[in-house]
Amino acid sequence: MNAPLLEVRNLKRYFHASRTGGLLGGVPRLVRAVDDVSLTLEKGETLGLVGESGCGKSTLGRAMLRLIEPTSGQVLLDGQDIMALRGGDLRKVRQWMQMVFQDPYSSLNPRMRVSAILREPLDIFHIGTSLERSRRVSALLERVGLDASFARRFPHDLSGGQRQRVGIAAALALEPRVIVADEPVSALDVSVQAQILNLFHQLQRDLRLGIVFVAHNLDVVQHVSDRVAVMYLGKIVETAPTALLFAAPQHPYTQALLSAIPVADPSQPIRAQVLLGEVPSPIDPPMGCRFHPRCPLAEDICKRVEPALLAYGPGTAVACHVAMRSLGVEASSGSHAGVAGQGDAEERRS
Q1: With CB atoms counted within 10 Å of each terminal CB, which end of the chain scores lower, N or C?
Q2: 281 Cβ partners below 8 Å, 6+ apart?
């Protein structure tokens, strides 16, 4: 079968932190923001990437696009490793991978009209004639639900939802294959969030885009994602098709996140699982399972041995000793799932 649209293999992104100890500078420390992450994205699929603030999900999204340079690992677009590209070759591939940012106001040039913002990527890549670019601007505005009059406005003339629509239109200008949306609705009112989520769903359906939708709220990604990958302290701890993950979460961290989603029915009892303590520092992550200091199910092995991300069914994987034992998955069974959706990936390679 065909290779996935986007494949991330063993991606790491470390940052240098301040040194500790000694008058001569001490020992350098590393922030392991993204630590050996693998996942896949298919054409026409939305992958929700979820986790608490500081887990590394936004860093992962930027590293996928090489907006920040990964420390190591591979990112393959249609089978081509973009980490090996330089200069003009990298520039050519960049048009196929675009980003929608969290804050629509800071991501748009306040001195440029909307028409100029949307024309800019077309000008940079010398796409079409001047007339064709103008027509493309009008088409982009229509695609995101704005009429042609918005082309004459500046970002400060727009509401938050309208600015985010312009940001999405700018990301679509070069007809990308992959879009990374970094918490694109977190700065918006709840009523506007629903409209933007519906827009992403429509774009995925109409354009067959591959979308990585980054969020800290599982309730948000439920409405737009085909699959969900849950991230904790730089690592993927669980991945599954959305319906299955919400019906039967396996990792205790996923279970806690799901239990915190508000229930509209006041007659239903509140079952929120309170997570103990704070997220540990990525400079000095715990030994063994990184979640064990906050996990109500932690056992002795969790404190000593880091669990591998193992597949237990098509498109599913979990990194948890307790869950793997419950599912009957053996670490030595060869079911290692470094790639989210590994069941499908293995089938493609066979």
Answers
A1: C
A2: none
